[in-house]
Amino acid sequence: MDLVGACQAFVHVSERGSFTLGAAAARVPQPVASRRIAALERHWGARLFDRSTRRATLTPFGREMLPSARRLVRLAETVELDAQRARLTPLRLAVPEVCSTLRLARLDAEARREGIHLDLRTAPPNERAELVRSADVGAALVAVPTDEAAWRVPLGVAGAAPSARVVYLESLRRGRAEAAASPRRVWLQPEDDVPHVRDRLTGLRDAVGLSPVQVSAAATLPAAMAEVLESDDLLLASPGQAEELGLDWSPLGELDLERGYDVATNGGEDPQRLRTGLRRGVARCLGASEEGEPA
To answer: Does the keyword Transcription regulation apply (predicted)?
Structure first.
């Protein structure tokens, strides 16, 4: 038996003195209200209404039980309101700075369709992890090695001028005639200044004989972009980001590099809400495929 529904019918009918009016107030058909009250009477073992008159008149037992029924109905209404508020409480989510405004807006819109309200905060990798540890956010998309990642985003190099279909880092090595010229560099933006990306790229730099400065980390993405726009330097970037920045993108010939992402929480959030419920939306926001594989 639906005890709350039956008590709602009982309270509304008793307050209006009519099964018809009480059922309308409870927003159920009159026969449904009658069945619920009859079930409640069977459950409690006594009549609630005197049915010998046209008006729905409470029996002594009904008058005794009415205050308790009202308390239950009010409590149920409070629980429903609390549930609505809880659904509307935003999930504070730290996301990469490389997510464009349009991509973030689309993620937010998709989350709302899933009943999740997001409060998005962009931050670089180390700050996102710290925001979770300090409980300033409920969850964060954190940078992880690709073998631990729920989402993976391919990386290559992008420049202001069209480049080869595939760029080999070895091709940046200076010949004797170019010794006096400034070397071409690959700039890492903060999003890629993490060990599992940076160390692999600097290892390749050393293996092909480039100078240390030819793979450099920029303090900000705008700073890296300024270097690329004013020279033939290259930016380490994803295909989608390069397109948004108006750069020509190519994969690296010697190395498959990827950004890896997973969800980190401070214990108050279920990471599966994002890994599963918003998997495709997060993938599109990051520039990965909808399944989380490289786009």
So the answer is: yes
Please report, for the domain that includes residue 28, its CATH number.
1.10.10.10
Sequence-separated (6 or more) residues with CB below 8 Å from residue 263: 139, 140, 141, 142, 150, 271, 274, 275
Considering the entire predicted model, what is its pTM? 0.69
Domain total for the chain? 3
Write the CATH number for 272. 3.40.190.10
CA distance 178 to 182: 8
Q: Which residues of 131-158 are buried (b: 16+ CB within 10 A; e: fewer)?
A: bbeeeebbbbbbbbebeebbbbbbbbbb
Same domain, 276 and 253: no
Contact between residue 151 and residue 95 where contact means Cβ atoms under 8 Å apart: no
Kindly indicate the confidence band of residue 53, based on its pLDDT and cuts at 50, 70 and 90.
Answer: confident
Q: Tell me the average pLDDT of the chain.
A: 90
- Residue 121, pLDDT > 70, answer yes
> Does the structure show a pLDDT above 70 at 270?
yes
The strand pairing partners of 250, in sequence order, are 157
Domain hosting 235: range is: 151-258
